[in-house]
Amino acid sequence: MHKKFLLAALEQARLGQGHCAPNPCVGAVAVQNGAIIAQACHRGAGTPHAEQLLLTQIPPKTPGVSLYISLEPCNHWGRTPPCVDAIIQHGVEEVIFAYLDPNPVVAKNNSTEKLRAHGIKVTHYPVDEINEFYKSYAYWTLTKKPRVTVKIAQTLNGKIGREVGERVILSNALCGEFTHQKRAAADVILTTAKTVRLDNPKMNVRLGQKEQQKPVAIIDRKLSLNKEYSIFSTAAHCHVYHSHNQEVSYPNSTLHFIPMVNGMMNLGAVISHLGELGYHDVWVEAGGALFSALHQEGLVHRTYLYIVPNILEHNAVSAYQQGGIFDRPHSVSWHTMGDNMVACLDWREN
């Protein structure tokens, strides 16, 4: 039964994806007599944690209540009080959590010992799906760098579009919906000035009838964009990375100077800075140049290749602009999207 209710807590945690960084996404459910009687998720940094929201739905000292939490409850003050203290004061009898918080402050204060000292039964019950869910948070906690996921849509002959003429939309509606789901779950979307100029994209989330703004990072080495592009109004905020000396202002944006390395933008420094801003997950949508460079420098953790049953002429734009970008050890899984296929490449990590 533990796994069943912890997966219910995970579903709550997923509701906070893309909103909580630099905090982890956390979900919690309260169970009494084998049934869920309350559920909650963390909605963003500075707002009440999932456990605190959950406890407001349950009268204090309600008998026979167990809390199932996706992540070890916090035991220190941040912008909100410790969840361990709230659980103790509320008279909860049992806590089951799935993932040990890698935050050294949480580990040092030992939530389990604190709860057990007040007679609360505590169980750490790992679940594979939850371990996977917290990969980015754990990686960011240990390295202060985000995990990077890149997607690109290509024809059977490896082309992604034409140099001139009308924009070519390759992937189907199912892949489009998948893209927006990944945008929603990411903390920030990374793109390039070239992509903005060619496509004038919104880079927001459009699922159903709702539109959601996301933070967007733009690599614009020469600060060449026009202020009228849609992205400056459709993004929650733009982080513009450049190597230009001249002062330029863009609406709804913060500019970040990144020194050049061998005449190229230092992509490692860009990714590291996104981690310093507190982002755990970076979703990349751009052309073949950035796609190839990120892979060449070993900065990608997961790659999605949308493979479309189509052919573009031999002089169309290639998805792959450097050799050897797929040489790193990796595993591949395949996902059918109607008449498109998605290859998911997970790059082996140390």
Automatic annotation (TrEMBL):
GO molecular function: 5-amino-6-(5-phosphoribosylamino)uracil reductase activity; diaminohydroxyphosphoribosylaminopyrimidine deaminase activity; zinc ion binding
Transmembrane segment boundaries: none
UniProt superkingdom: Bacteria
Pfam families given in the database record: dCMP_cyt_deam_1, RibD_C
Binding-site residues for substrate, renumbered to this chain: 183, 206, 285
A biological process from GO: riboflavin biosynthetic process
The protein's annotated pathway: Cofactor biosynthesis; riboflavin biosynthesis; 5-amino-6-(D-ribitylamino)uracil from GTP: step 3/4; Cofactor biosynthesis; riboflavin biosynthesis; 5-amino-6-(D-ribitylamino)uracil from GTP: step 2/4
Keywords carried by this UniProt record: Hydrolase, Metal-binding, Multifunctional enzyme, NADP, Oxidoreductase, Riboflavin biosynthesis, Zinc
Cofactor (UniProt): Zn(2+)
Active site: 51 (proton donor)
Chain positions recorded as Zn(2+) binding sites: 49, 74, 83
UniProt xrefs under NCBIfam families: eubact_ribD
Matches recorded under PANTHER family: 2,5-DIAMINO-6-RIBOSYLAMINO-4(3H)-PYRIMIDINONE 5'-PHOSPHATE REDUCTASE (PTHR38011:SF7), DIHYDROFOLATE REDUCTASE FAMILY PROTEIN (AFU_ORTHOLOGUE AFUA_8G06820) (PTHR38011)
Role: Converts 2,5-diamino-6-(ribosylamino)-4(3h)-pyrimidinone 5'-phosphate into 5-amino-6-(ribosylamino)-2,4(1h,3h)-pyrimidinedione 5'-phosphate.
Protein known as: Riboflavin biosynthesis protein RibD
Organism: Fluoribacter dumoffii
